[in-house]
Write a structure and sequence with these properties.
- The chain is mainly β.
- It has one domain.
- The chain contains two helices and twelve strands; from the N terminus they run H-E-E-E-E-E-E-E-E-E-H-E-E-E.
- Strands 1, 2, 3, 4, 5, 6, 7, 8, 9, 10, 11 and 12 form a twelve-stranded mixed beta sheet that branches.
- The chain is globular, with a radius of gyration of 15 Å.
- The termini are far apart.
- The N terminus is likely disordered.
Length: 141
């Protein structure tokens, strides 16, 4: 078992996979799809670029991204972290997420303040760009 975790850690390090967010709150049941594998989500779990979160009925998740952006995800939601880059020393920023269905509340962190044009939330009807700091969105089927 120790060998498995060592190999998993080594692979993440070798491919430069750095966590981009952490699950701060979780009430109910949710999963994360990562590299074509599905895992149960827990409070304290780290999230990475490319992760897809899915919540069940009566589930709420609170996420905190490395730049301080906070996102609350509601029940029966599908949420994808497409791109995330927070490198203020290099003035490099990117925050692209996708909400195919469900609901979320967004509160901007440092990326939204330093480079609001780099924040995009894709929904089936289009793309939301931010100019403020907080909004809610719901995507119905």
């Amino acid at each position: 078992m120790k060998l498995f975790f060592f190999l998993l850690f080594s692979l993440c390090f070798a491919f430069g996979a750095e966590p981009v967010a952490v699950v701060k709150e979780l009430q109910g049941n949710a999963t994360v799809k990562r590299n074509a594998l599905l895992y149960p989500l827990h409070k304290g779990d780290y999230l990475y670029r490319g992760d897809t979160l899915q919540t069940t009925k009566n589930t709420d998740i609170g996420l905190s991204f490395n730049d301080g952006t906070r996102i609350a995800i509601g029940s029966e939601t599908l949420f994808v972290i497409d791109e995330y880059l927070f490198a203020p020393a290099q003035k490099a920023f990117q925050f692209n997420v996708h909400l195919p269905k469900g609901s979320m509340v967004f509160e901007s962190g440092r990326i939204g303040k330093l480079a609001p044009e780099k924040v995009k939330i894709k929904v089936p009807q289009g793309i939301i760009g931010i100019r403020g700091t907080k909004f809610a969105v719901e995507v119905e089927e």
